[in-house]
What we know:
By secondary structure, this protein is mainly alpha-helical. The protein has helices spanning about 15-50, 50-70, 85-105, 105-115, 120-125, 130-160, 165-195, 195-215, 225-235, 240-250, 270-295, and strands at about 260, 265-270.
Amino acid sequence: MSSTVTPPKPQLNQRPISALPSDTSTSLVGDFIQETLALTRRLFIQLQRRPSTLIAGIIQPLMWLVLFGALFQNAPAGLFGESQNYGQFLGAGVIVFTAFAGALNAGLPVMFDREFGFLNRLLVAPLASRFSIVLASAIFIVTLSFIQTGAIVAAGAFLGAGLPGIPGLIAIALIILLLVLGVTGISLGLTFALPGHVELIAVIFVTNLPLLFASTALAPLSFMPNWLQIVVTLNPLSYAIEPIRYLYLHSNWSLASVVMQAPWGAVTFGGALLVLLAFDVVALLGIQPLLRRRFA
């Protein structure tokens, strides 16, 4: 009598199954990094083909340093606080305003991609995350800002403004990074909120000079009337300018060092960094709903 032998069921190996989620997440992270690097490389290729943008971004602040420094060369000593000359006082303002202007223009390449249809191709592509578009723009602008800052710091040292130590240069890089991230987020938010590049350029032109004059870039806070002092202390640029200016004037500094006497009290170095950090958080969280709608 024959009998049918049923082979035993193979034991399922559970390890690969449990490893699937982690493998998938690792793959998504790798794809996200690859996409971000590719989009960033594309922006640098565009810059390589049109280097006039970078050249102008370096020459213009150097002209500010030379011309404005010469304009107030004969100002009485002590007129601009502890600064030895106006060029030393102006250097921090030129560094911050150059980084601010570059970050405010961060949305223009994305806006042109949007108008020429390239952005639509990216949005329908099987990207791991469409936020790689935003991150690539941020990396590109931060890199350009560091290049411009290095050129301004070197030129300022040559013109007699002095040079902070290594910790001071690292602190300047951190301040520029915090400022650029927040302003870049606002610029990208405007890119997806406004109908076209004409409107975006108009906003940039309207915003640039008022924020420059309503800061401590060109004059100390004590020179200003009370109402303007209040406006200046609400401007994020002032919280980037004053710490950098303090670094030029003091080799011994700490987070507790007072960098600005606002109408409502003293602002420390660490307090200024917290203000810039809060500015970044508000700016980046504020554009999240808009980006999600546009990327949906």
